[in-house]
Amino acid sequence: MLHRCLEKGILMVTVSLAQMDVQHGDVEANRRKALKFIEEAGRRRSDVLVLPELWTTGYALDMLPKLAEPLNGETVSMLKEKAAQHNMYIIGSMAELKEGKIFNTVPLVGPEGLVGAYSKIHLFKLLKEHLYFTPGRKLGVFDVKFGRIGVAVCYDLRFPEVFRVMALKGVTTVFVVAAFPNRLNHWRSMLYSRAVENQFFMVAANRIGSYGDNRFFGHSMVIDPDGEILVEAGETEILLTCELALGKVKQARSRLFHAEQRKPEIYDAFLQGKQAGD
After folding, report:
1. Distance of CA 61 to the CA centre of its chain
2. Local structure of residue 134 (DSSP, 8 states)
3. Distance CA 190, CA 204 (A)
4. Whole-prediction pTM value?
5. CA angle, corner 162, sides to 129 and 220, nearest 5?
6. Cα Rg of the chain, angstroms
7. Active-site pick, 33, 53, 69, 96
8. Does residue 154 have an active-site annotation?
9. CATH: 3.10.310.10, 3.90.1170.50, 3.40.30.10, 3.60.110.10. Which one for 3-271?
10. Is 250 a catalytic site residue?
11. Which of 33, 80, 82, 120 is catalytic?
């Protein structure tokens, strides 16, 4: 639960990551499983529970026209009820139906209700996401009880610009929901890099199981602003819980905030085919 370390006065946030298999296209079964994780996270007095990408449906892409829901539908209503009951935030992506289009959307649900939503910007063509989903147009940055957070989905990790902008906007913790297949070394190295280069916490929940030839390997983890892996799961279903000392972000950035050393005028000039000062 949200508290301050008495010795140092540092704000501590308890996060739980639900590393779960997802039943292909079976929304009811996936809701029941998620509820078990939510209840256990509540017993652990978690401030945040993170569910994986497309946790209600999995990659049942051809079924999405029937399975996608609006954000005022049954799934978000369930999350609202449980978030209020356990005084926690719940983060995880689902297929959202909005104005006749389908988005891969993360509703951020808290004790106060629906705080906001982020729709995945970068769609992964190798899993044919671009054929079924409409990409989002806004970054996922939100203010919650314990500060400013960022939200990203899986393939977003390969676009460091997203995370640099979040750092510049004052984000201290980024929550990543994922169905990341096959390449554990990529997963771990990108999470590590995003944490270290931006000096914030990376809290990442990845699913397990399989879809076609793709194997989702789990290894959900939490990495601090100095690049230390605080906790990492294996490849089985588990609820991973960890405390974040948010003061670490300020400590790291007070020594040297890398984002402030950028030279955007040089980068922009080079992209335009000239050097700054020409």
Report:
1. 21
2. P
3. 11
4. 0.94
5. 70
6. 18
7. 53
8. yes
9. 3.60.110.10
10. no
11. 120
